[in-house]
Amino acid sequence: MNKGRVAGGARGRNTPPPGEHHRLMVNSIEDRLASPHLERLAKNLITHMEKSGMTKPEFAESIGMSGSQFRYVRSRAANPSIEMLGKISAKLKTPLYELLEDCRLGHRRNLSAKQMTKNLSMVVKRKYAESELDKEQFAKVIGVSLPQLYLMLRGDSNPSLLIVIEIARRLGIGMWELLGVEPMQVEEPVGR
Fold first, then answer.
1. Backbone phi, then psi, for 176, in 5-degree steps?
2. Helix (H, G, I), strand (E, B) or coil at 124
């Protein structure tokens, strides 16, 4: 059944108008600069660096980045992947959600990048099965290419933060639910 719509979810999340479902995601510098998550990450990395007493190059190396990568993240010109964010989180011994939102544990779980991408795969598989759409239609609904969808379904995808946020929005769930950090809320299936 080709309904091609994404449910709004239990917590009233906004979903894109039907015409936007067919546009693949491209994140511009404006998108990165407007992201509160990337802003919070940059501020928290600067704070961690200042507390460490290290120089910028030393700190960058300590968290597994090159100096130029660190500069781009600090200036919010970069959109790090889940794998990179997981490495930073592990090196700083700080849960990712604290780096991105300054939010304490509560009911959230501190997962590795591998666990988050595995959960993303499981959620996308479940949403795809519930949608009753074919793979090409479902890829358009969540705004990714067909090869990227195949990677997600296999658990081999390493999307960037802003892509994860947009996929979650299009699925009508929160980013942390998509990554398995928060428990899934009851929501309507995609495509019905």
1. -70, -30
2. helix
Query: CATH: 3.30.1180.10, 3.40.120.10, 3.40.190.290, 1.10.260.40. Which one for 30-101?
Result: 1.10.260.40
Q: How is domain 18-27+111-179 classified at the CATH fold level?
A: 434 Repressor (Amino-terminal Domain) (1.10.260)
Measure the CA–CA gap between 178 and 143, rounded to whole angstroms.
15
Calculate the alpha carbon distances from 15 to 19, 25, 166, 186 in Å.
11, 14, 10, 16
- Global confidence as pTM: 0.80
53: left (phi over 0), alpha (psi -120 to 50) or beta: left
81-135 tens-digit pLDDT: 999 999 999 999 998 989 998 666 567 788 889 999 999 999 999 999 999 999 9
